[in-house]
Design goal:
The chain is mainly α. It has helices at about 5-15, 40-45, 50-65. About 50% of the residues lie in helices and about 0% in strands. It starts with a helix and ends in a 5-residue tail after the last helix. About 0% of the residues are buried.
Amino acid sequence: PLNVKNILAKLTKLTKIKMYKQSKPSYPEVFKTYGDNKKIKKISNIGKFERVDEALKNTYNWYLKNKNLFN
């Protein structure tokens, strides 16, 4: 399972920009969640999902090419 800390570490490694989460978990926050992809696979006909590392890299590269859209 992924958590925000792991994703931020991956983004920091990819972008060379230090990213951090500076908040403590709140009381009702769920610490363990596990999703089931059966329904999304059935509806979208997606057979295989991309690895998180590869997806973050592709998203970051897309952003670099299209960052003028965000200004």
